[in-house]
Amino acid sequence: HLYTGNDELIVIIKDSNNLISSSITKEITVNDDNNDGDDEECFR
Questions:
Q1: Cα distance between residue 3 and residue 6, in whole Å
Q2: What was the pLDDT predicted at 34?
Q3: What is the pLDDT of residues 16-39, one digit of tens each?
Q4: Quick one: pLDDT at residue 41?
Q5: Helix, coil or strand: residue 5
Q6: Per-domain residue ranges for the chain?
Q7: Is the Cβ–Cβ distance between 39 and 31 less than 8 Å?
Q8: Whole-angstrom distance, CA of residue 40 vs CA of residue 33
C-alpha cells in the first residue's frame, strides 16, 4: 500500500474519517422515530 512504513499517518487518517462520519451519521439519523419521547439512533 501507499504508506508502507508510516502506519501512524494511516491511523490518524482513519480516525479522522471515522469521527467525521460518525458525527454526520448521528446528526442526520438521531430522531424520535416512534414518537415515544426518546431518540432512536439509526445507522443506515
A1: 5
A2: 64
A3: 666 655 555 555 555 556 666 665
A4: 56
A5: coil
A6: 1-32
A7: yes
A8: 6
Q: What is the pLDDT of residue 40?
A: 58
**3-class state of residue 40 by DSSP:** strand
Q: Which three cell numbers stand for residue 6?
A: 508510516
The set of residues, in sequence order, having a beta carbon less than 8 Å from that of 5 and lying 6+ positions away, is: none
Report the C-alpha gap between 26 and 21 in whole angstroms.
9
Whole-number pLDDT of residue 44: 46
Q: How far apart are CA 29 and CA 10, in angstroms?
A: 28
Could you give the dihedral angle defined by the CA atoms of residues 32, 33, 38 and 40, in that order, rounded to the nearest 10 degrees? -100
